[in-house]
Amino acid sequence: MTILLADPRVRAVPVVESGEPLVRLGADLSPAGARVRRGLAERLLRADAALPAGLRLRVVEGHRSAADQQAIIERYAAQVRALHPGLGAADLERLTSRFVAPLDVAPHVAGAAVDLTLVDVAADPAGVALDLGTPIDATPEQSGGRCFTAAADLPAAARARRDLLARVLGGEGLVNYPTEWWHWSHGDRYWALVTGAAHALHGPLAEAVAA
Fold first, then answer.
1. Kind of pairing between the strands at 113-120 and 183-185
2. 69, 100 contact by CB (below 8 A)
3. pLDDT by residue (tens digit) across 42-68?
């Protein structure tokens, strides 16, 4: 069974804050200049180096402010509420968490997660985005569930690319959020629960720290 970020077991994971700073990823890995915890950055660089020649990781987003996270929650919750009138608060949070994490456990707010894809740098040094079945940030409704990492109805090439991401990122200890093929994290509460770690390494970052 898929464990969602709204699961009480995620909130129950203690956090022993590592104090690792945010660092900015290089432009070759993240043209958007995403920031992540230092240890995650090092793992991403090693995973990137493990890819076959001509392929690179492309990190679209890393650390996200609490305000930005809350705005995404509210937008998507409104969509879910419109599709399911009369939904109770607990069920609304559960369905919303398929696509966006509750604020208190959000891996992006902790600087412990990235949204990423694969690009082909053999065809163009700037990187040509490859098809992994859906665009990044496609909701379950928009994608007909194909945003789920293990979705069955994918072209063979997209399936193979998702499997490649799983090999290189999983090899560096990152975990995937199974409703979003593009979302990978390390050190957050969800990571700790999935891996059986005694505690999370990173909690939400205050705005002053993250600046």
1. antiparallel
2. yes
3. 999 999 999 999 999 999 999 999 999
